[in-house]
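Input C-alpha cells:
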C-alpha cells in the first residue's frame, strides 16, 4: 500500500486497463493483491466509499487515499465488486468520479466469470462487430444489446414484413448487472447466436424484397378504381395482410408486372386520346376564318393562355415500372382524363378569343337548348333564335356558341 504508483494505478484502472496493478509493482490476479484482497474482505455484504476510506486511511492501516481509491477502481474494472449510486443504480467503473466515491455504495460480486467464459462472450460479441478487450466485457454489453435490437428491428415490422422477433431475452439481460449479466450472456450464447443468424437472414431478405414491395404498393395506389386491376389489387392486399413479403416463390414480382401493364395501357389510351382531341382542335382552328387572320405571335399567345401548347401535353413514359410511376406522380390518371375532356372547351375558348381580337365588340350568343317534337315547335324555336340574334346584332357582331 506504500508503493508510490497507486495514483497511476487509479488513473489506468479508470481508463479500463486490466493490468493497472503493474504500476504498483504487482503482476497477478487482482483478488490476490494484498491491498485489493483487504478491501474486498472489508466490503463483504456492502460498504459505502466513505466507510472504506475511513477504515484503511486510519490505524492500523494508515494507507494513502490513492491506494484506497486505486484498489477500489481495480476491483471495479475487474468485476469483483460493483458500484451503486444513491438511487441504487449501477455506476459504470469508467464513469465513477473520484469525488463521488465517498457516497457510492460498493458490493462484492457474488458471481465469478472465468477467463474461458469471458473469451466465449468476446467471440459472441465479435459476431456483431463489437471488439471487447479482455476484462472489459461488461462495458461492451450495452453496445451488444443495441446491435441486437437494431437487428431485430430490421428482421420484422409493419406488414407485409414478418412480425418483429421476440426480444424478451435482451430485456432479461438488460435487467441484470455485472458478472450476473455476463454469466447470463454466456449461458444463453447459443440462443443468441441462433438469433443473430436467423435475424440476419430475415433482415437480408427484407432488404432485398422491400424495394419491389414499395414499387407494387405505389402501383396499386395509382390503379385503384380501374376495373381490370381489381383482382391484382385484391392479391396485393392479401400479401400485406398475411405478411407474405418473404413468401416463396416471390408473390410480389407477378403483380408488379400485372399492374405495370394495366397502368401502361391506361396511360397509352389517354395519351392517344389527348393526341386525337388535340389534333381535332387544331383542325377546328385551321378552319376558323378569324384564326387564319391572326399573326403567328397572336396565335402562340392564345394557345399558351389556354394551356394548349405542345409543351403542355403530359409527358408519358411507359417503358418501365419506375417510368410509369414517375409519369403518374406528375399527372394522375384522373387528372389526365380531365385534361383530355377539357380540350374541346379550351379550343372553343381560343376560337372565341380569336374573334375578340378581330372584333373587340363581338358578342358570344348561346342558342337556347330544348327538345323539339313537332314542326310547329321547330318554327317557334327558329323564330325565337332569329329574334335573339337580330336583337344582338344591333349592339355589334355575333359569334354563335
Amino acid at each position: 500500500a506504500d508503493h508510490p504508483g497507486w495514483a497511476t494505478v487509479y488513473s489506468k484502472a479508470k481508463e479500463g486497463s486490466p493490468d493497472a496493478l503493474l504500476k504498483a509493482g504487482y503482476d497477478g490476479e487482482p483478488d490476490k493483491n494484498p491491498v485489493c484482497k483487504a478491501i474486498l474482505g472489508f466490503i463483504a455484504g456492502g460498504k459505502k466509499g466513505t466507510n472504506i476510506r475511513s477504515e484503511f486511511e486510519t490505524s492500523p492501516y494508515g494507507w494513502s487515499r490513492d491506494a484506497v481509491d486505486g484498489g477500489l477502481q481495480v476491483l471495479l474494472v475487474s468485476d469483483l465488486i460493483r458500484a451503486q449510486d444513491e438511487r441504487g443504480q449501477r455506476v459504470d467503473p469508467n464513469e465513477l468520479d473520484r469525488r463521488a466515491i465517498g457516497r457510492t455504495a460498493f458490493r462484492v460480486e457474488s458471481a465469478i466469470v472465468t477467463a474461458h467464459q469471458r473469451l466465449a462472450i468476446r467471440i459472441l460479441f465479435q459476431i456483431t462487430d463489437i471488439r471487447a478487450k479482455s476484462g472489459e466485457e461488461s462495458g461492451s454489453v450495452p453496445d451488444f444489446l443495441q446491435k441486437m435490437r437494431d437487428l431485430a428491428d430490421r428482421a420484422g415490422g409493419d406488414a407485409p414484413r414478418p412480425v418483429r422477433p421476440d426480444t424478451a431475452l435482451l430485456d432479461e439481460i438488460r435487467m441484470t448487472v455485472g458478472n450476473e449479466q455476463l454469466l447470463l450472456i454466456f449461458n444463453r450464447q447459443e440462443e443468441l447466436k441462433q438469433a443473430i443468424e436467423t435475424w440476419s437472414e430475415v433482415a437480408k431478405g427484407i432488404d432485398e424484397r422491400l424495394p419491389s414491395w414499395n414499387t407494387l404498393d405505389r402501383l396499386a395506389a395509382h390503379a385503384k378504381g380501374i376495373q381490370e386491376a381489381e383482382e391484382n389489387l385484391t392479391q396485393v392486399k392479401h400479401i400485406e395482410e398475411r405478411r407474405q413479403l418473404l413468401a416463396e416463390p416471390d408473390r410480389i414480382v407477378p403483380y408488379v408486372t400485372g399492374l405495370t401493364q394495366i397502368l401502361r395501357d391506361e396511360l397509352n389510351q389517354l395519351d392517344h386520346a389527348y393526341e386525337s382531341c388535340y389534333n381535332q382542335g387544331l383542325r377546328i382552328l385551321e378552319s376558323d376564318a378569324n384564326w387564319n387572320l391572326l399573326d403567328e405571335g397572336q396565335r402562340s399567345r392564345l394557345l399558351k393562355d389556354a394551356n394548349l401548347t405542345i409543351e403542355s401535353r403530359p409527358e408519358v413514359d411507359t417503358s418501365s415500372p419506375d417510368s410509369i410511376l414517375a409519369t403518374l406522380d406528375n399527372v394522375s390518371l384522373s387528372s389526365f382524363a380531365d385534361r383530355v375532356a377539357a380540350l374541346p372547351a379550351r379550343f372553343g375558348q381560343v376560337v372565341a378569343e380569336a374573334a375578340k381580337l378581330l372584333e373587340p365588340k363581338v358578342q358570344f350568343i348561346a342558342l337556347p337548348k330544348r327538345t323539339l317534337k313537332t314542326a310547329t315547335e321547330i318554327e317557334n324555336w327558329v323564330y325565337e333564335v332569329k329574334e335573339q340574334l337580330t336583337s344582338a346584332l344591333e349592339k355589334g357582331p355575333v359569334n354563335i356558341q
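The beta strands are 47-48, 81-84, 90-91, 105-108, 363-365, 398-400. The first helix runs from residue 6 to 14.
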